[in-house]
Amino acid sequence: MLAAAAPAAAGTVPPGPGQASAATLAAAPAPASDRASLRVVSVGFDGRVRLGQWAPVWIDVTAAADIDGTVLVETSTPSGAPVVLFGAPIRAAAGAQIRVFVPAIFFDGRQPGVVHLDAGGGRVASVPLPRLRSTDELVVVLSAEPIGAEPAAARLDRLDVAYVAPEVLPKSWQAYGGVRLLVVRNLDERLLDEAQRMAIRHWVWVGGRLLLVPAGDDTRHFGGPTLGPLRAGAAAGRIGRGAVITWQHDPSVRAGLGDPLDVREWEAVLTPRVAPHAAGLEPLVPATRMVPGRVHLAVGALILLYIALVRRVSRWLATLRPAPVAACALLVAACVAAAVQVSVVARREASGVVTATVIEGLPGTRHGLVHIYGRTVSADGGRFSVSASPEMLVWAAAPAPVRIVQGPVTTLEGRGASVQLAGTGVLPLPVTGVHEQADEVERITVTNQSGLTLEHPWIFSYGRVQAVPAIGESARITLNRQAWQAHDRLQRTEPNHQLLLWAFSRLQADAILKATPVWLVGWWRDPAAALTWDGRSEKTRQLVLVPLEASR
Amino acid sequence: MNPVARGDLAARLGTFRGLRIQTIYLAICSAFLLLSLPREIGRFDLRDANLLLAVLAVQVVTVTYLSSAVASAELSIEGEKGLPDLALSAFPASVIAAGKALSSAAYAAYLLAIGLPILVMAAALRGAALAPVGWATLLSCAVATAAGIWGTWLGGRFGSDFTRSFIHWSFLGLLLGATALLPPRWWPANPIRLIDVLVREGWTVWLPVAVVGYLALAAAGVVLTRRQVEHTRAYGDGA
C-alpha cells in the first residue's frame, strides 16, 4: 500500500524494518483451505521485475495440518506459450508458518501467474500473484531514508529505484536478474540468513555492482558478516566480475536537492555493468548424443545367446510332442517380453542431455561462474527429470512446459524429445596459478586442489595460445616460445574444438576477462557442474578457464 | 498329426541343415537389427519408420524364400521327402497334399515365431507401435505358407533342378517384385507395399483381404499338389 500510495519519482518510498512486503500484501488475497493458506509476501523488488529474468518471490505458508509438499509459482505468458512452474519444497508441521523463497521468471507483468501449494499428490491451496511492474533494470536500495538516486536513475536508461527491506532479498544470486546496482545504507544483519548473504556475494562476483554508503555517520554495516568479506576481498574496488564501491558520505542528506554534482556522482555508479551472459554458447551444443557402446554390446550378446537357445530348443521341438511345443511357445512369449524390457533400458541409456559447459574463473574469489547451455535428447519423447547441484539454477532456454524446483538439488522436469536448457551457478574453483616472465623465459605454476585432472590444457596469453601437458595436483611448466599460435588460427584439435575457440574469443573480447591477460584453459569432468538425467549423472566435459596472476 | 507334416517338421527342426537354415535366418534378422541400431540419437529420429519397414521387409522375403526353397528341395534337408518320393508311398494323395500344406504353414509360423523377439526389439528400440509387427507377421505367415505349398508343387512338377530353380525365382520375383510395379491402387497385392502401409498408417482393411487371398493361393497349391501326386502315380514321372 505504501508503494501504491506514494511513489517517489521513478522509485518508491523506503520501507521501515519489516514493511517491505506491504505493497504486495494488499494485492494478494488470503485463500481459504482446510490444510494450509498462502500469502504472497513479495514479488520481485517492491513489485518490480525484469521480464524474462529471474526474480525473487517470497510466500508465507500457514499450515493447518502437517504439510510435505512444494510451493509452485506458475508463470503465464501473454502469447499463450507453455506455462512454466517454479517451485521450492516445503515441510511444515500443523500450526507453523513458514516463509518460502522461490526464484521465478516472469513473462507477463499484467497477469504474472498463480502460486500453488501442492502436497500429497494434490493441490492444497492457490493464490494469484499481484500485478507486477515491468522494468528494464533496477536500482535496489536498502535504506530507511530516500537516497536521492531517482533523478539520475530516471535520466540514465530510465532505471527504476526500489526500496526494499533486507528480509526479502533473494536467496539465489540469479534472482538479482535486472538489478544494476544494489545500494546498502541501512542493514540489520539479523534479518538476513546465510543464503541471502551468499547470494549477494555471488551476485557481486559474477558482475553485480554494490554501493555501500553510511547512514549518517554509521558505517557498522560496512564490516558486518554480509559486506565485510566483500570489501576485504575487493582489490581496488573490483572482485570477480563485479565491483564494490564505497562512499564515505551519506547521500540521503542531499537527497531531493537535485544538485547536478550529486546527479553526476550517481551517474558514475549507474553506468551499465558488463553482463556475465555467455552469448554465443547455444550453437555450440552438440547436435547428437552418442548411444553408449555398452548398449550395442548388450544387444549383440543377447542376440547371440538367443540364437544358441533357439538351436537347442529346436532339436527338442523336432520331437513334436505337446510339451516341447508348449514350452517353445512360452519361450517365444518370454523372449518377446524380455526384448521389450531390453529396449526400454536401451532407450533410457540412450537418452540424456547434451551440453556445452564453461566454468569461468572469477579473479580473486577461488570460485567459477558456470554457464551451461544444452538440450535434452529423449529417445521416446516422454517425461524426464534433469537435476543439478543446489548452487545451480537450470531453466528452459526456449518456452517449454517445465517445472523447476530448487531444493536440496535443483530439478527441472518436463516432457518431450528435445527441450533447450540453460543453467548458471557459482561453484568453488580451487585452481590457482601464476605466470612468470623473466628475461626470455616464460613459466606458469599451477596449484590444483580440485582433485580433478585438467585435461588437454592450453595457455592463453595476450591472444596467443599454446598447448601444455595435463595438469594434476600441481604443475610448473616452462612455455615454449616457438609453440605460440594465434588463437583464431588454431587448427582443429579435438571434438569440442568450437567451444575452445569460443572461450579464446571470449577471453580476448570480454571487457572484464581481458583485464587478466594470461589464462589457463582446460577440460575436466566435475560432478558438481554436471547435470543428472533421471538420476544418472551425465559426466560431460566442462571447459575450465582459470585466470593466472602475473608474478610480482 | 499328419505323418507327412510330422516327417517334414522333424527334418526341418532337428537336422543339422535345418538348424543351419534357422541360424542363417536369425543371423540375417539380427544383422539388420544391429545395423539399424543408431550410433547416436538426436541427428535423426529414433522412431524412423523406414528402419522398421526394412527389417519387416527383410523378414517377409527371407521367410517366403526359405519356406518355398525348402519345400521345393532347392534347399534340401536330410530326411525330408519330396513330392516324387512321397508319390511312391502308400499315403493317399490328399494326405500328402494336406501334410505338405500343414508343414509349410507350421514351418512359416515357426520361423516367424523365433524371429519375433528380434523384430519386437527392432520396433521397441525405436519406440514404434508393436501392433504393425503383429500384423506384418500374420501377413508374412500367409505369404510364406502359400509360397511353401507352391514350392512343394514345383518340386514335384519339375524334375530338372535348373528349370525348377528358374521357375521358383520367377515366382518369387512375381510375388515380391513385379507386384510392386503395379499402379498404386494395386499395391496391397504386394506384401512389402502392404507392410509399408501397416507400419506407416496402421491397420488397413487390405490386410484381411490379402491374407484371405494368400490362403486361397495356398488352397489352389494344395489342389495342384494333390493332382501332381495323382499324376505321378498314374504316369510315373514328374513331367
Individual helix count of chain A: 9
Oligomeric status of the shown chains?
Answer: heterodimer
The helix-and-strand class of chain A reads alpha+beta
CA radius of gyration of chain B: 19 Å
Strand order of the largest sheet of chain A: 8-7-4-5-21-22-19-31-32
Chain-averaged pLDDT of chain B: 88
Number of strands of chain B: 1
What is the CA-based Rg of chain A, rounded?
28 Å
Structural class of chain B: mainly alpha
Largest sheet of chain B: none
Detail the poorly predicted runs of chain A. 1-11, 16-30
Q: Largest interface, by Cβ-Cβ below 8 angstroms: which chains and how many residues each?
A: A-B, 41 and 36 residues
Distance from N terminus to C terminus of chain A (CA atoms, Å) equals 57 Å
**In percent, how much strand structure appears in the residues of chain B?**
under 5%
Number of strands of chain A: 34
- Overall 3D form of chain B: globular
Q: What is the percentage of strand-forming residues of chain A?
A: 35-45%
Helix tally of chain B? 9
Tell me what the structure shows:
The complex is a heterodimer of chains A (552) and B (239). Chain A is an alpha+beta fold and 552 residues long. Chain A has nine helices and 34 strands. Chain A has a nine-stranded mixed beta sheet with strand order 8-7-4-5-21-22-19-31-32, with no helix packed on it. In chain A, a hairpin with a 4-residue loop joins strand 17 (352-362) and strand 18. Chain B is mainly alpha-helical. The longest helix of chain B is centred in the middle third of the chain and has 33 residues, at 93-125. The A-B interface holds A 287-291, 295-296, 299-300, 303, 306-307, 310-311, 314-315, 317-320, 328-329, 332, 335-336, 338-340, 342-344, 346-347, 350-351, 354, 377, 379-381, 418 and B 1, 6, 9-10, 13-15, 18-19, 22-23, 26-27, 30, 33-34, 37-43, 46, 110, 113-114, 116-118, 120-121, 124-125, 127, 130. Strand 16 of chain A pairs antiparallel with strand 1 (40-41) of chain B, so a sheet runs across the interface.
